[in-house]
Every structure is written in C-alpha cells, then in structure tokens.
C-alpha cells in the first residue's frame, strides 16, 4: 500500500518540506533507506545519514535545520520519535485489518461471535464460546468451550485457549501461547507414584493485556489464575496455577512464576527471573534479570541475585567478589607482616 508525504503529514499533524506527492510503500532505518521507503531522524548521532540516505521521505523534528541540500522529502513534527511510533501503530492497524472467515474452519452452533470479525483458516471455536466485536483470530487457533473473548482482541496463529478462559477487551496474544492448560499439580500415592490433581479452575485475563509468543498461563486448581489490566508479558514466560499478576506489571522473557504467588501492581521483572511459589510481591517492585526470588518482597523493593538480595547490597558485594583475589592477597600480606613483627 502506497502513501504520499501529504497523507502521512496529515496523520502526524506535520508539515511537508519538499514534494507532497512523494510516495512510499515501506519503512526503513535511515542508514539503510532506499527509494520508496520512509524513515525518521531523532538521534543527532544519525544526522549524517540524512544526507546520504536514499529514503524518499524522512520524519524530522521541527527544530531540525538542514546544513545542505537533500533530495529526500521531509515531514517536520514536534517529536520525530513519537511521530514515527504513532505511524507504526497506524501501519500495524492497516496491515492487520483482516475481515471475514477463511475456509476451512469450525464454529460450534452454540458459539456467538460479534461484528467485524476475522477468522483464519483451520480455526476451531468450541461450544458456548462468546467473542466480542472487532476480534481477529488467526489461522490454526483453538478456542475451547465456554471461553469468552472481549472486543478488539487479536489472537495470533497457533494460540491454544483452553475451556472456561475469560479474556477482556483490547488484548493481544501472540503465536504459540497456551492459555488455561493444567497447573503442575501432582500428589504421591502410597507407592510413591505421582497422581495428577484435577485442575478445575480457570484463567482470567483482564483488559489491555499483551502476552508474548510461546508463553503459557496455567489454569487454577480451584478459583482463577489472574492477569490484571495492562500487564505486559514477554516471550516464553511461564505463569503457574493460581498466580495473580497485578495491574500494569511487566515481565521480561524466560521468566517463571511458581504456583499461588501474588505479584503486585506496576512491578518490573527482568528476564530469566524465577519466583518461588506462595510468595507475596508488593507493588512497584523491581527485580533484576536472572534473579531467584525465594521470599516475599515489600512495596518498592529493588533486588538482584540468587537468592535475591537488596539491589544496592548486591552491587557492592559484586565489587568485592570481583576483587576477591586481590583482597585475599592483601590479607595474606598483612598476616606475613604481623608474623614478621612478632619474630
């Protein structure tokens, strides 16, 4: 799809400097720009590339002043970085604006689907499923019985949503996610054999939640595993049974949360973090990457390490650890000096 410089300027409320009819059909980095592409300049470090790029259109700040002539058409805006982000959102909306139902697919007679839906090929919609308006379900998705999905959600290819799951509005679930599979619940019998405990709860995902590819969220043993409003989960994250993740918390890739742990609001959790089960993590907690959390944390704590300790204490301790050979050599020298003085 082609857009002119003037059309883009109208979307961004910007001003065209150059040819308003210049057309682009793709996006590019400024140093790799080619004819027919759109780029942007916000970091002064990349300013020299503006004079060598082959991009047809570049978005720049209004304060930017040219040092020499260029062939690229400019669109001047208040903030080039924010404007380009806005344009990416618009581009995504246009690109993903699919409608209708591809064949083959299966929809149970008892399912209810709202207006303006997209249903990709080989999608399966189970019994008593309720799907809102403007929902896009891409190919090879499975939506289990009695699941509800709110308005304006996007379910990408290969997502499996087990029965009884409840998903709010404006959610995005990326490819390969599994929502509502059994929690890891087993009990040994008298022979020492592990017997599965039935997991009869469900998963609740509130509004504006994003879940990255290949993440798994287990159903509760009883009650619900809950992902609160505005939570953002990266790729390959494991959320165990009966976990609750508080509003606007973000968790980076390859992290895992064990059963029944409660995470507060506005927390930031780095990649490859492991949280033990049955913990209470307060609000506004920050956990650095690769930390192991074995105890509950209070509001506002910042921790790092395995087992995790106060972030500031960890950094101080790490300095000592790196210098441990020198410290030991210094101690050995002091011992020798003391022994010499005694003689």
TrEMBL record:
| Occurrences of domain Mannose-1-phosphate guanyltransferase C-terminal (ranges) | 104-182
What is the active site of this protein?
Answer: 241 (proton acceptor)
Database matches in Pfam families: GMPPB_C, Hexapep, LpxD
Q: Do you know which InterPro entries this protein is assigned to?
A: GMPPB_C, Hexapep, LpxD, Trimer_LpxA-like_sf, UDP_GlcNAc_AcTrfase_non-rep
Q: Which GO terms describe its molecular function?
A: UDP-3-O-[(3R)-3-hydroxyacyl]-glucosamine N-acyltransferase activity
Pathway per the UniProt entry: Bacterial outer membrane biogenesis; LPS lipid A biosynthesis
Source domain of life is Bacteria
Q: Which UniProt keywords apply?
A: Acyltransferase, Lipid A biosynthesis, Lipid biosynthesis, Lipid metabolism, Repeat, Transferase
Keyword Lipid biosynthesis, does the record have it?
yes
The record lists the catalysed reaction(s) as:
a UDP-3-O-[(3R)-3-hydroxyacyl]-alpha-D-glucosamine + a (3R)-hydroxyacyl-[ACP] = a UDP-2-N,3-O-bis[(3R)-3-hydroxyacyl]-alpha-D-glucosamine + holo-[ACP] + H(+)
Query: Where is each UDP-3-O-[3-hydroxymyristoyl] glucosamine N-acyltransferase non-repeat region domain found?
Result: 23-89
Query: For this protein, what is the EC number?
Result: 2.3.1.191
Query: Could you tell me what this protein does?
Result: Catalyzes the N-acylation of UDP-3-O-acylglucosamine using 3-hydroxyacyl-ACP as the acyl donor. Is involved in the biosynthesis of lipid A, a phosphorylated glycolipid that anchors the lipopolysaccharide to the outer membrane of the cell.
The record, for HAMAP family, names:
LpxD
Q: How does it assemble?
A: Homotrimer.
Q: Which family does it belong to?
A: Belongs to the transferase hexapeptide repeat family. LpxD subfamily.
NCBIfam families to which the protein is assigned, alphabetical: lipid_A_lpxD, PRK00892.1
The protein here is known as UDP-3-O-acylglucosamine N-acyltransferase
Originating species: Polaribacter ponticola
The coding gene here is: lpxD
